[in-house]
Amino acid sequence: MIVPQRQPLDVYPGTHRPIGTPHPSTALTVDGTRWDEDPVYKKIDGSLREFFAISHLAAALGRSVKTIYKWETQGLFPYATWIYNGESKNGRRRLYTRRQVEGVALIALEEGVLSGQKRFLSQTNFPERCVELFADTRAILPPPIPWS
Predict the structure, then answer these.
(1) C-alpha distance from residue 110 to each of 6, 73, 107, 114, 115 (Å)
(2) Concatenated DSSP letters for 11-72?
(3) 144 forms bridges with which residues in the sheet?
(4) What is the per-residue pLDDT for 116?
(5) What is the model's pLDDT at position 69?
(6) Closest Cα to residue 105, out of 56, 72, 139, 69?
(7) Nearest-5° Cα angle at 116, 133 to 107
(8) Are the CB atoms for 55 and 37 separated by under 8 Å?
(9) Helix (H/G/I), strand (E/B), else coil: 93
(10) What is the pLDDT along the chain (148 residues), one digit of tens a residue?
(11) Which of 69, 85, 98, 124 would you label with 131, given CA atoms 20 to 30 Å apart?
């Protein structure tokens, strides 16, 4: 049996992102928006506060929502600080503050999780640093949003 010659890779291993393109967390997401567009606003203590859903976190990390769920069940990522019962039949929604999402993205960048190379999270300090970040920011509410 003759095996055809292997073509050079034109995408990063384990992704569909072409080589030489910026990572989605540093630029725009696939549909041309930034991860922090369209936040979720919840009223807490009489003021509207800005939160982000798990889809925002996934977009900031350039991963899918299912990947974040998998990390949570494997103990590689802390559960969301803020959870509310959604209006849909799907139930509860995970909410994160801007500080948490930006902190997780920075940790992922520093630990090489966003480098495009396949790395096991368990071989990095990413899980421990995220747990520490969430512990530090757990009691901090986002600032109130002025509205009229």
Answers:
(1) 33, 23, 5, 8, 9
(2) B-TTSSPBTTSPPTTTS--TTS--TTSS-EEEEETTEEEEEEEHHHHHHHHT--HHHHHHHH
(3) 49
(4) 66
(5) 92
(6) 56
(7) 10
(8) no
(9) strand
(10) 665 555 445 665 556 656 666 555 554 444 556 888 888 888 888 888 899 999 999 999 888 899 899 999 999 999 998 888 877 666 788 899 999 999 999 998 888 887 666 667 888 899 999 999 999 998 888 888 876 5
(11) 85
In angstroms, the CA 58 to CA 71 distance is 11
**Dist CA 60 CA 73 (whole Å):** 20
**47-53 and 92-96 beta bridge pairing:** antiparallel
Tell me the Cα Rg of the chain. 18
What three-state secondary structure class fits 139?
coil
Measured CA angle at 24 (ends 54, 38), to 5 deg: 45
